[in-house]
Structures are given as C-alpha cells and as structure tokens.
Amino acid sequence: MNYGLIALNCAAFLYQLGLGDRLTGFVDTYAVIPFRFVRMFLRHPAELLTPLSAMFLHGGWMHLLGNMLYLYIFGDNVEGTLGRGRYLLFYLACGALSFLAQIAFQSGSMVPNIGASGAIAGVLGAYFLLFPKARILTLLPLFFFFPVVEIPAFFFLGIWFLLQFLSGAATIGRTSAFTGGVAWWAHIGGFLAGMILLKLIMPRGSARRPIVV
Known about the structure:
By secondary structure, the chain is mostly helical. The protein is built from nine helices and two strands.
C-alpha cells in the first residue's frame, strides 16, 4: 500500500505536468483554499472532498521528491503495524485532518494548499510512537563536511516537530490572504493526528520492535 501511495502521488504529478495552460485552473479546483472552504462547504458539499484531492497534488519536483522520500523511509514500517487497509484509512485521515488544521489557523487565506506533507506528517507521528529507538541514517551538515550518522527516531522526529511548531508559531498574526509558503500548521496537525489515530486503530498485539532504517 505504501508503494501504491507513492506511485499514485507520482502519477498525479505527471498528470499535472501534462496539463500545460490548464494547470492553474486544475489546481484551484482541487486544492484546499481555506477562505473558499470555510465559506463554501455548506453550500457546495463537493468542497469537502478537496482535502482528499489536494494531498495528491504537488507544486514541483523537489516538493514531490522530498515528500516521497519521507514516505518511502517511514511509511512501510507503519503499514507493517497497521495492515494495508488500516494504513490507507490512516493516511487519508491524517492528510484530511492536516488540511483542517491549516484552515483553522489561516481561515482567511486564498492561497491554494496542496501536497502530501500533512498525511506524511501523520505517518511520522505514528512512527514516533511505534519505533522511538529506531536508528535513522541522517546526513549531518557540519561546516564543510557532511558525515552520515545514526540518530534515534524519537530525537530526529522530535526535532522535526519542534521546528514545524516554531515555524508555525512565527506565522501567527503575520500572514495575509495571499501569503504563500509552507503550510506549517498542516505539518503540526498531521503529526498530532497521526499519534492520536494510531492509538484508535492500531490492532491489538501489534509488534513494536525497533527497526534500523
């Protein structure tokens, strides 16, 4: 299932590349636009589907590849714990809830929100609880050297979450309707949603052995 999600994200991006001049209209239709979502979902129920469609769209090659790398590294272990069906529902729910978190903090934004980052943040939240002692191979920038070191997952993901939170907090009160950039609150919301949903849907007796990645 994890490989299937990666393939689906890549296929959706390749479809975007083929749209040419129609791309802007396509993204506006299927992205989450907080201002539009808050004011339209009661009158147009189809708007409720945009958190699902938006998580399969990406803004460029680096956006796609960065997200897919994280999904590839962390997703298969979480799927192994939840099973294919539960993992798919978990992934989609985390993605949708992450967009709702972004809407809650930037309800006046008219900028399209797209990307799998929120859903993947949910996967990271689950991994944080399931495999806190797993060793993550990390490229560490150190002046002119870039050594590869093993960092415990709880530290790696804990620092990641702290950076998202500090970045999100810095945007409070400083954004306008047309401010773009990274959807920090989607990352935060997705991570927390992943931790909570894991507790709700994890099968009983699931193995929680540390895994070296």
